[in-house]
Amino acid sequence: MLLKQIQYFLAVAECRHFTRAAERLFVSQSALSQQITKLENDLNIKLINRDTHPIELTPAGEDFLRDAERIMADVNRLHESMERWQQPQKHTIHIGMITGLGGMPLSDYLAEFNTTYPEARFTLEHHLSKELCKMLLDEQLDFAIFAAPQNIDNYPFEIIEIQKESFLALLPKNHPLVDDKYLDLAIAKDEPFIFPTPENVSYDIFCTACKIAGFTPDVVSYCSGAANRIDLVKSGLGITLISESALQYYKAEDLPVLHLKNPIYKHTVMARLTDAPPSVYKDAFWKHLKEKI
């Protein structure tokens, strides 16, 4: 009997459905079913009645469930108990983030947390949002702050919403559309656009918005940095879309700024893995942020 098999059984027992349990565990349904079958074969006991919908636990399965929940609770307590014996460097919290955090005072949050946990240490590094998601999945980071991709619900992440901000249209001076109250992307379908590179979450958001408006954008330049896109708009190369916080940070001087007729948004979130191992310091830091944000 493996600890993983107990975890798989608990997921099935809670969901009462193999497919939903597999989705929660981010494993294939066949892999989940094989592990449960192996567990039953090792015990020589049937734990789950698969013929009912939803599935039901057998009487033996109900007994197994109670003991399995106690075992997992003991395992979690063991993790926490042993953590206090770790070397100080084991208390380092690794955080990845995008460059534009809007008004989030992260440094203040870290300092406040350190007053309660002075032995905690932090590493901070900057990456694009898609790379941060990958690093979090690969357990290279404990937490990540990023612009949520459109398929964020498909990731095994626990999420704290930080802010939702509109994207604005930035136009060259004397552009024919500057007198409009809003920019209708459908009206601007023949305009040259300056987009972030495809490695950016914003690229996907902009492409989707244009598709909904009924056209494929004519992208004359790709720039990963907001400052570079602003410079290209100043030169008259084309139109770009930019978040409110980026516009405040980089300044666009006298360039015309329009709200979009059909708004699109940047959702900045903080995330950690849903099945992250228990950790006194990391769990406390997550709780601290949830109370602050």
Automatic annotation (TrEMBL):
Domain called HTH lysR-type: residue spans: 1-58
Q: Which PANTHER family match?
A: HTH-TYPE TRANSCRIPTIONAL REGULATOR YBHD
Q: Name one GO molecular function term.
A: DNA-binding transcription factor activity
Q: Which family does it belong to?
A: Belongs to the LysR transcriptional regulatory family.
Please indicate which superkingdom the organism of origin belongs to: Bacteria
Matching SUPFAM superfamilies, A to Z? Answer: Periplasmic binding protein-like II, Winged helix' DNA-binding domain
Q: Name one GO cellular component term.
A: cytosol
Keywords of this protein's UniProt record, alphabetized? DNA-binding, Transcription, Transcription regulation
Q: Which CDD domains match?
A: PBP2_LTTR_substrate (cd05466)
Q: Does the keyword Transcription apply?
A: yes
Q: Which InterPro entries match?
A: HTH-type_LysR_regulators, LysR_HTH_N, LysR_subst-bd, WH-like_DNA-bd_sf, WH_DNA-bd_sf
Supply the name of the protein.
HTH lysR-type domain-containing protein
